[in-house]
Amino acid sequence: MKRLWAMTLARSLEFLRDTSALGWNLIFPLVMVAGMALIFSGPGQPLFKAAVIAPAGAALDAKLHPFLATPHVQFYAETSVEEALPKVQRHRIDMLIDLRTTPGKYWVNDQSPKGTTLERVLAGTAGPKLEREIASGAQIRYVDWVVPGVLGMNIMFSCLFGIGYVIVRYRKSGYLKRLNATPLRAIEFITAQLISRLALIMLITVVVFTGTNLFLHFRMEGSYLNLFLVALIGAISMIAMGLTVSARVTSEELAGGLLNLISSPMMVVSGVFFSMDGSPQILQAAAKIFPLTHMLEAARAVMLDGAGFMQIAPQLAILSAMAVVFLAIGASTFKWTQD
Amino acid sequence: MLPPYDSRLRLRPGSQLQCDMPDILTVRNLKKHFPKVQAVNGVSFEVAEGSCFGLLGPNGAGKSTTVEMLEGILKPSSGEILFRGEPIGPRYRERVGIQFQTTALQDFLTVKENLRFFHSLYEQGPSIEELVETCHLGEFMDRDSRKLSGGQRQRLLLAIALVNDPDLLFLDEPTTGLDPQARRNFWELVQSIKARGKTIVLTTHYMEEAYLLCDEIAIMDHGHIIARGTPNRLLAEHFNDSVLEIPSAELNGQASALGFTVRREAAELMTADVNDSVRKLLDAGVSLTHLKIRPRTLEDLFIRLTGREMRS
């Protein structure tokens, strides 16, 4: 316990005194959130997005309904009203059309300017008349949606590179070899790295969230405790992932390459900046292998939909399982020396 | 103060081997295979408690591999290492101190913080104050450990190696890269540590260092020990001659006739009979004003045993 504490303290001091790294960890998410808020606070995006529930086997084209040929509108398939309707309520899509019945139905959000515009276009289109349904709900600003993404991404980078890269550097410089000559055990060293990084990244995340919330006032429907829990378990799983990558690697270049190989696709498919609704099924399935996907799902559920503990329990369970598996691999394959 | 270089044969301190002391380390038929090379090929020796044992050899001779096995860092392919009669186990790390040839420390930590950190990894050890005094760290305790001079850094690494009050201390080329002053200071430090009864295993490329500090040396080459004993006994065994050195110009072009080997301005002759050689020089009309007679050194022995070819 004494050894674990000493190692944790030494690593934390090193990080805190490395002002460039600390500054980067703090400034990067701040700049990202502010930038996103600026870019997306103006007029809405030109593209309209509409979900269509089609009869079995039918393609989403003009034959089904002439409206589906409207340019600058992205039509994509959904399978049930229950799943798609909340997206209209949350302004994530502008319209939902159900063409399985005659006459067909459509839902728009009466508080959404884009929905109303799209409705006008529909009224001016030839083809069978559709019945109007109203879905109400306040709009979620893009910044509300993107803030968990940006903070999650920062946690991801900090955990993967802050752990993976640092351990490989220690190994290459011979510091690990020096530690190996002491009674410090591998599990103590690894746990100390985990605790130190976890404490620092949680602190940074809380500071950045609170700081940006002062002037952006995020939507927060659920409990802060649940959100903290999501970030905590998510961070542990990604630290564990970094440990696994760095368990045996001896070159910083290889470590950097491997970490980029993991973090780049994770950033794209986990839904940091854009909703993955409507993207190919295979991509959505692939995204499930990344901890960030589950972390963002849970964080958005808490923040935007006010999900309680039981609703985010599946994601927390997946993240915990990932953490356990990665930690087990990392600890059992850990190497002190270069050869 | 250390004795001057030229008189070290007569004045070398602690040159008697402590034969009455039990062995702290016993090494039997130690071997280490790497995928492409047999680094250590059946090495056996003992290290007496309280002595300083020097392991010498050219690069690639297998001494670093041997030392890493003794330190418990590297697992031998076969053979035995006994610490006070017992195979080395998990408790061994509490009993040994290691100063690696190159050690990185954690960035952004001061000397004091580094010492405290390593101190807390062990169950016992001298106080930080004692270590600071022993290794003369007082003036730079609050400095970032990356900003130390070579000598200061080696003293800090030595202090870290002593942080658990070890019985057995490994020093792996501790003075490589230090300036002559820092090297001499470090030797004094090692001698004061030895005087407290610690056993030291030293590897070095400096024969002067081995001669001054070691009670017993082993010279390794190609994975074997090729010579072992006290420095003086080894010199007596391998050399029965002395070296006559004279400026080449004084020989009036008779260097080869007189059996001298010319090396730039100086010419050398190895001779077992100094009287006879000096007489011949006088007969040839050579002025003896600048003649030097020196005994053979460990360096001569090292070169004789390991050859002169280039090593990687």
UniProtKB/TrEMBL annotation, chain A:
A molecular-function term among this protein's GO annotations: ABC-type transporter activity
Keywords: Membrane, Transmembrane, Transmembrane helix
The ABC transmembrane type-2 domain, residue ranges: 111-337
GO cellular component, one term: membrane
Any one Pfam family match given in the protein's UniProt record, by short name: ABC2_membrane_3
PANTHER family: DOXORUBICIN RESISTANCE ABC TRANSPORTER PERMEASE PROTEIN DRRC-RELATED, TRANSPORT PERMEASE PROTEIN
Name of the protein described by the UniProt record: ABC transporter permease
